[in-house]
Amino acid sequence: MDSKIKILSDKIAKAHLGGGTERIDKQHNKKKLTARERVNYLLDESSFEEIGILVTHRTTDFNMDKELYYGDGVITGYGTIHNRLVYIFAQDFTVFGGSLSETHAEKICKIMDLALKMGAPLIGLNDSGGARIQEGVRSLGGYAEIFHRNVKASGIIPQISAIMGPCAGGAVYSPAITDFTMMVEHSSYMFVTGPNVVKTVTNEEVTSEALGGAHTHATKSGVAHTTSSNDVECLEAIKALLAYLPQNNTKTTAKIPTELNDEIRTQLTEIIPSNANKPYDMHFVINGIIDNDSFFEIHKDYAQNIIVGFARLGGRSIGIIANQPLHLAGVLDVNSSKKAARFTRFCDSFNIPLLVLVDVPGFLPGTDQEWNGIISNGAKLLFALSEATVPRVTVITRKAYGGAYDVMNSKHIGADINFAWPNAEIAVMGAKGASEIIFKREINDAEDPISKLAEKETEYAKTFANPYRAAERGFIDEVILPQDTRRKLLKAFSMLEDKKVDLPKRKHGNIPL
Ligand code: HXC
């Protein structure tokens, strides 16, 4: 028995060395943790159970049978984070650059299948040179097996991808399908074709970092939902995010008590500037409503005219969508509509109630917006919110103009409770634009058109720049004081806790993608 145990322990020791100490040192020199270090850091102490530690690849081409590494470039298994079961794979860059072979893919698929069967989140730590070049189509097939499983698991279990090294070519499509892509600054990049191909095809000179680094995807493409300055921060961000998510689509998140900060709440009355054209930071409103320091922002640096993220209200996880007057006056445009629509669909899939804070002057005008499809992209948000069956509550903090009033979780598209602050302005358009159209003749015929316009603007604003027309119709359920907002929301969401909506059977709707 002793000799047999020795064989086993030698094999395990070898597997733990991955591609060997030299390559591990290289990984550390790049300020990256190894795959095993990442897994151990992320999961609760001693909770990791590895599956397939002794798997090796089956390729014989190019003398590959002489180069066998246990694990074949990916560590897979299960464990817990804050005592909750999760399934995990971590690509090991020290073994063939973490490249994906047929067996490497099989290992990932095995734990994906388990995650789906057991209804627990799947976390993928990506650090890979892409398809195992020596394996050709077997590797491509392996990727497709993973993509297919990502799609089948979508909306059933939360799927989180961390990009902690290269992720190129078709490999990018697995993270893209998962719910969240979290990138590490300066050590990760994602692109379909790298700088060399870009140069050959378009003659553009671009670095990997500029083409597909964390900053690029966090600000320009929106592919990255969060960025972190190093591996440890990224792993901490995964843990933090997971705390807002349920295990699967049949569960709700656990209630976590948090402290309250009443000081901020009392200042809510002063946050809105008396001049309706002056911006303010909607984060202040968010922080004045939610449980202390509980906001986890998603897509913080992308389409900043809308804010989306998770928070706790009375200890329960909620999703927040809020116009941000500080950026582009909080207008809805192509990117902000897509950002909010995707977030809405995530929350709706996973039973996370939605709070929508509205201060929106309308949709952004212009050829750029029209040619880039503000019609179909704006429709995504309208569609996503309309079909969401989770508890949905709206607070209009200032403007709710035009089509954007409808889109931003209005009563008409199924919101459960709609509040407005006393300073809210709910109308087809702002007073100036409206007066120029409906009083055009009167203004042109006036001796002093400028003062006539001002007079008409005042008249229009007095009639419509308030929440009362909407409240009289019941489109607003209650006009509330800013300082009462938290209390009102706690009650509304508590009242809606057991909301149930039975929809007629259909395969799926046809959201304008
Ligand atoms: C096999 C690979 C590999 C790959 C890297 N390695 N990529 N082995 N298949 N795809 C190996 C290297 O031979 C090397 O082995 C080790 O991993 C580390 O690679 P280095 O080049 O030394 O590291 P570095 O300088 O950091 O560069 C990393 C890299 C580069 C930028 C990722 O390795 C690279 O460009 N690799 C090829 C990327 C690529 O073109 N992949 C295919 C993309 S297409 P040793 O033994 O020296 O340690 C694709 C299609 C997917 O993925 C389609 C899905 C539908």
Automatic annotation (TrEMBL):
GO molecular function terms listed in the Swiss-Prot or TrEMBL record: ligase activity
Occurrences of domain CoA carboxyltransferase N-terminal (ranges): 1-257
Enzyme class: ligase
Domain CoA carboxyltransferase C-terminal positions: 260-506
E.C. number: 6.-.-.-
UniProt xrefs under Pfam families: Carboxyl_trans (PF01039)
Keyword tags: Ligase
Family matches, as InterPro entries: AccD/PCCB (IPR051047), AcCoA_carboxyl_beta (IPR034733), ClpP/crotonase-like_dom_sf (IPR029045), COA_CT_C (IPR011763), COA_CT_N (IPR011762)
Name listed for the protein in its UniProt record: Acyl-CoA carboxylase subunit beta
